[in-house]
Design brief:
Chain lengths: 246, 246, 246, 246
């Protein structure tokens, strides 16, 4: 049983009829609903809640954080971003979805601009599994086909993924590294591309399977606690040239 | 011929007699001197110069930036760090030395705390080459032996290096990933551990060879210019379900 | 519950009193004993059994294969090595221990010579965890200390590990990448260095913990089945220059 | 100035009129011709020459070997494959083209089946540069467009590339990791997908640029010579529990 927090900006849902019709209770609710099928303890939080719903207490008890944002990355408080980053370094899993590539938290963990090409043209996306041995690929076939999605295209300015799990084909001629894992500190991060707010992508069984697998892959474990700072020697250090033995 | 800028905090040299005796003209001058043997165009800059010696003009013409800092990482202006980071993403090479692991620029590019263990005890360091096929290893033997250095020990909180070139053995019992390469955007980064300010490390022929090799490895080239943002399709996108052809 | 097969050459145990006194029932029994504590279904096999105990039936039902060999790598039948390799590509996990670095199966999967330095001198080994977030590091501390082991030293001629989990420090001055993961096809491979036959290394609680973790990490899952060969197009291919539409 | 050997199976050219019309002097001559523009010392060799044109003397003086094969991988002598592999581990560069993915040498260095999907249907290939900072991408634009090529599609059973430089988009709906680097021993390997024998692919300026860049990237240098085997300690090893000092 994993404690999952699904964080969503939740601004599109307020102002865009099309989005509201696809996700009447918000993208966060749609994602939380299918994650609950896995017997996880799932909570949600949105940008406009106090502290963005990411208080110290909430973050401390979160095992895996799922993040969707798009219009208002800049409104996420820097202090909150710093706390989320620290939790990832301490072992909390992080799953970044779609336009979350431009979130402050993802850019802070990547160190790059995370820029890319994009196009909204109702085009087909085919997500090929290029690493069929990866746990995140469990229960999937050779590819996932999405009838209509927003195109994201290379060059995607990210560090080379620690593991490249999926690469997408787009009808308009582009490709994109759409399933990428990273390790930062003790935390595991998975970036997963699909999820434009006007398409029912998060109702797609395969997309749901990927996110379920990712939550399971990213959960923390009982891991070593590194010790930093000034350290006493574990071995005897010999006499140095000036004749002083330490 | 490469335009190299050697940046040094240059505070130790002002206040510490021991450091002044080892590096009378500053660590930056010592490094610049041996880099000039390679017919590079070498400049230096220090923390206390206006804009830390890192104006837009200087950064624009710099091919590779070498960075040494220790006591005053926090005094480097955030705006300057952001400009240096952007230059790296655009292709400028960056070589981070020793205590520069805690510099704002290195931490920003890594996304981790970059923390580690340390000890000042005049102990021997043996830097093993674990990737003898790497260009940065050119002209070296199996290892580099430093009579006395400051110990840095694992766990070193960095992302897994894109390439691990060197691993150090310390007399007191620790190991450390001491030669690590990273790619960020179009830039190449090399972290190289040795260089405690009270030891004549930068006069060591093998240490000099590594830094010379790294400058050559990190230099930019005539590379593709990525295009980001809204992109027209390169292929015809078929009729969508709503009957609209794009 | 995982089906584990522990394969051991079992020649030292026949001819060397010292080894017999440390592992009276063979290294394979010692390893199988602690793996059974995890409720796995554990079998053993040795070189001198018919087909080396690696018949098609046995291999088909094996989820994770643990391999220890030293004196007689050359006596393992090439046909058997090929079958083991195919099982790994199809998803069977493989844990290669100590002198198994020179086994035919490990060299076949690596593509390199797997050569290294060595020394039998009763020296201390300290295995540092350099990736404390890795599942194989679960339940461990900062390092594992082995009072006496055989030294293995860099340069270790392996491909750069997909993940470097541990690096060893040796009393005599060397370092070694002692915990390395690889992916080949759908299979997961973990190379773990310690285990010289005259030392009670496989009774050490931390060494046992690593191997238990590795078995859990390497087990196969319900993963996509790749399809190879001549493939029909998934999209309509336009008229080519010669006017032929495919 | 680099010593390059272009090895081609040269069987298609003997039996297929279409191939003969595209490459009248053989694929090897076409590739050697453009490499000579770079002032390299370029030789060629084919399958049916004595020792496949790969005698010890020839291999010793070769800095970079370029390999194209398709119909007759099995006819390359195992002993020759072993010698080529050893040269790569010792530092010779290797560039494997197109159907060379199934060559004995590439499979031996990879450790996987190297299987993939394929289709001959005169379809468009667009090779996207996903790592614009890589030296192999020098002088290129965002992508290379090939009017007609043979499709290769994922899943491509290779180890995760050390560096993924290019990903291809195919008209029929597939993607493929088409520009991949690997390090084996001291050698550098580049796999580059395009080059079906009935298309004029090796006359394409961008394809030529990639191969020129790859030769430059893969060339050996004056690198450390690893030492293997029984090694004397570099440090004094203390008294062991039995009281013997080594």
């Amino acid at each position: 049983m994993i404690n999952v927090l699904v964080w969503n900006e939740n601004r599109h849902e307020q102002r865009d009829e099309k989005v509201k019709s696809v996700y009447p209770d918000g993208i966060h609710r749609a994602i939380a609903d299918f994650l609950k099928e896995e017997d996880h303890k799932v909570k949600t939080a949105t940008l406009d809640e106090p502290q963005h719903g990411l208080s110290d207490a909430v973050l401390q008890e979160t095992d895996v954080l799922v993040w969707w944002g798009h219009l208002a990355h800049g409104e996420v408080e820097d202090a909150t971003v710093e706390k989320v980053k620290q939790r990832v370094l301490d072992g909390m899993g992080l799953i970044v979805l779609h336009s979350g590539h431009f979130s402050k938290i993802f850019k802070a963990l990547m160190g790059t601009s995370c820029d890319l090409k994009w196009r909204e043209a109702d085009e087909k996306e085919r997500i090929w599994i290029v690493d069929p041995g990866h746990p995140i690929a469990e229960g999937l076939g050779e590819y996932i086909e999405l009838e209509k999605e927003e195109m994201y295209g290379e060059h995607f300015d990210i560090p080379a993924p620690d593991e490249l799990v999926m690469v997408s084909w787009f009808e308009g001629g582009e490709v994109f590294r759409s399933g990428c894992t990273y390790r930062r500190g003790k935390g595991k991060i998975f970036y997963f591309r699909p999820g434009h707010e006007t398409y029912p992508t998060y109702y797609h069984k395969d997309v749901q399977q990927v996110i379920k697998n990712a939550v399971n892959w990213a959960k923390p474990a009982d891991l070593p606690v590194p010790v930093y700072g000034n350290a006493k020697p574990l071995e005897r250090i010999r006499v140095s040239q000036e004749g002083v033995e330490n």
